[in-house]
Amino acid sequence: MNKPLRRIALFCGILVLALLIRDNWLQYVRADELNTHQLNRRVQIERYAHQRGNIIVDGKPVTGSVETKGSDFRYKRTYTNGPMWAPVTGFASQAFDANQIEKLEDGILTGNDDRLFFDSTLAMFTGEQKKGGDVVTTLNGKAQEAAFKGLGDNKGAVAAIDPQTGRILALASTPSYDPSVFAGNSLEDSENRQELLNDKDKPMVNRALRETYPPGSTFKVVTAAAALENGVVEDIDAPTDTPEPYIIPLSRTPMKNSHGDCEKASLNEAMEVSCNSVFANLGDKVSRDKMVETAEKFGFNDPEIDTPVRASASVYNTTMDRGGNALSSIGQFDTAATPLQMAMVTAAIANDGKLMKPYMVDQLRAPDLDVIQTFEPEEMSRPVSQENAQLLQQMMENVVDQGTGTKAQINGVTVGGKTGTAQHGVGNSKRPYAWFISYAKTDSGSPVAVAVVVEDSNGIARDDISGGGLAAPIARDVMKAVLDGKE
Amino acid sequence: MSVVTNTTTIGAIDAPSRRNTELLLLAFAVAIPVFAYLNVGLALDGEVPSGMLGYGLGLGLMASVAHIVVRKFARYADPLLLPLATLLNGLGLVLIWRLDQSPRLNARADFAPQATNQLVYSALGIALFVGVLMILKDHRVLQRFTYISMAAAMVLLLLPLVPGLGADVFGAKIWIRVGGFSIQPGEFAKIVIAVFFSGYLMVKRDALALASRRFMGLYLPRGRDLGPILTIWAMSLLILVFENDLGTSLLFFGMFVVMLYVATERTSWIVMGLLMSAGGAVVVAQFASHVQSRVAAWLDPFGCLETAPPNSNMINACDQMTQVLMSFGAGGTLGTGLGQGNSDLISFAANSDFIFATVGEELGLTGVMAFLLLYGLIIERGIRTALAARDPFGKLFAVGLSGAFALQVFVVAGGVMGLIPLTGMTMPFLAAGGSSVIANWALIGILIRISDTARRPAPAPAPSPDAEMTQVVRP
């Protein structure tokens, strides 16, 4: 009976071997995947096991950590002025994961990033408490405050960029929420979060990055850029051949203008009083494909604008017909843009045609303040030539001097801007969006470009909603805050 | 006259008993769990645990008693089996005690600390081990009980189905409740039925092996010889269907096929066994929802967590499986260290069916492999005993017990690691549960008895009165 016995011994050996191989597969090959799986509560436990690093604005933390008892999470996240900073920080909750910077830079904040390995190992030997590293942002506290206060009770968003570097200076969204109300894992935290999720005003949506709006007339600067770049307009003061009324191509509908003097208006005049007919006509002449090309150089149709928080893609339809293209050229039809996108358009023009990649994380720091990584400005594209950019600046400055954007004027500073009032809803039944984009210019170039959008402005008569009236003062305050800080 | 030689003097050189080797190994087998105990205490509270002395003395005492009894009653036994079982039992106690300290588990209504009970069960196990060695002087005595064993095994297996006695624990009906105790009769039936199989096959092996027809390269048995395997097969299926227990069913059928193969040396039995178990499993999987959810949780635990209907058995099974897998993943190569993992996130049966996940998380890949090799060593020592045994009954009995042990380890460890669908069985010696630890100590006791008989030098033949008379006649 010994031969089959030896075979049985071999068979049992194979069973054990199979278990050993399976274990290597599980604990070596798949270990990382299982260990970081979103259902794995250990990720959360580890995230809050040590004092979490902070998110820093202007050298001061806007976040904090407090010790808690009664659960398997040791520390809890706190926020200073949570609603104002929520679009920047995102949230980190014991029960509900995290998002935005809190999630993307989680490794640094928890101290588990490989680059912090030395620090944590050292801490282990010196017996110090392990602590997370800090994330230093590019934001400007004063500008953010101006933006958040300016929006007030309105629904809307502000994005402000430094045109020369792409550093994001302000990123506000209202109505906002306080991430500290559901940072824990109690029943109350859960109810608070549910209440926020059920709120029809959607306070947890980051409107500055993740909501797209029809940009309305602010998009006309893109159309003007395309017309200049493609030689459709050579001289901004020469009359264009726009008839009055201008019939939208492939239709019998005349394009409505809210201002009388649009027949044969020059590009400069049309910009000043925001003539729809002139820009629809120019967009048609530039042609859809060239319009798409220019819009995409400004960042439209790019699904991967990472600041590092990813912004939604702004849209310029690439397959529509001539009529659609004419309507899109004035920022209606399918055209949609995030506030960040319109700030990028403005910044590119203000920076003489060079678009810098927008970013909001400046540095990652170890707990002992050693800099682990510094993010450098990066050029994204050149949507317009320097000469054409300066022509566009001239026209936008006109708008603020004597056109629809006079409310954005700042004493002693050159300001360029463009208003927008975008229709939306079936038959334009809903209250329009008020837009304003602008930049300020000093001797050393432009330090700030800003885009403001205000949704559904309750309590204000419909006719009064215009970018010039509602949004321009907010843009002015944000620019002023940045300029004041420079002095 | 030539020189008279007496051959009996050769027997005077005694075969090595290896008892001192066993004693040395036992010292390690006691010291390692004591250090593990200390490790848990330091990790959890930062101080030497108060129960350490008691635990160390208890384990040491049990090991000493077992060793002395082996020295006295089974002098030539295999020196590895006792230390291996002691080490596993000791580490199991540490793991159970570690999980007793978990605040997360203690917050659950269905959780009660198990370490003290388990220590008592281990002592009972050692007592049974001692009893086996003292009473069972020769394993061949058991041959007499072949058919009684069969009846006893049947009764044990069917007990959980008796109304009022059987207890349904999360779908599986493999427990009976007597007084305040839950007993798993299947663990004992494992040993009893091995007696029957060995006795039966020893008698019938020639008929089963020789009377066969050749068909497509395989020797097929005669129709009437198929009776026993069909009966065992049917019984396994009945266990599966009525007790909802895939593990026990697989264990018995697998054990029978292994022993049948060893007895008859016919590969055809293996082929038939595999076909029959595959067939049975497929048929049962068609209508047993219990088995279906286990299979779903095995195929894609994370996926089925999303697709399974809420609050169903299936979603519970999948949730358990994901927790277990993540626990293994969290351990990585070296593990978090004893007392520092979060394997208590597996809230249900963390210290019984899923205790191996705690090994995975806190001792890592290294620890799990070490444990698997310890089990592997027990199995191979068992089969070695079978090889060395001189009588066919002993051979069959030893290989049956070792094979069942191997299958159980494979089914449990493979189940928790997601290699095969999970079954409700317990890791021998590690998991909390009295029946398992007591029955496995008995199993080790029997293997030690058989190995002692196998290695014992043949008794010196009595000096022949004719020796002087025999003379070599030279030509």
TrEMBL record, chain A:
GO terms for biological process: cell wall organization. One of its GO terms (cellular component) is plasma membrane. This is Penicillin-binding protein. GO terms for molecular function: penicillin binding; peptidoglycan L,D-transpeptidase activity. The lineage of its organism: Bacteria, Bacillati, Actinomycetota, Actinomycetes, Kitasatosporales. It holds the Pfam family PBP_dimer_2. It comes from Streptomyces pacificus. Residues 156-480 form the Penicillin-binding protein transpeptidase domain. Signal peptide: none annotated.
Automatic annotation (TrEMBL), chain B:
Pfam families: FTSW_RODA_SPOVE. It is a multi-pass membrane protein. It comes from the Bacteria. Residues 455-475 are annotated as: Disordered. One of its GO terms (cellular component) is cell division site. It is found in: Membrane. This is FtsW/RodA/SpoVE family cell cycle protein. It comes from Streptomyces pacificus. The lineage of its organism: Bacteria, Bacillati, Actinomycetota, Actinomycetes, Kitasatosporales.
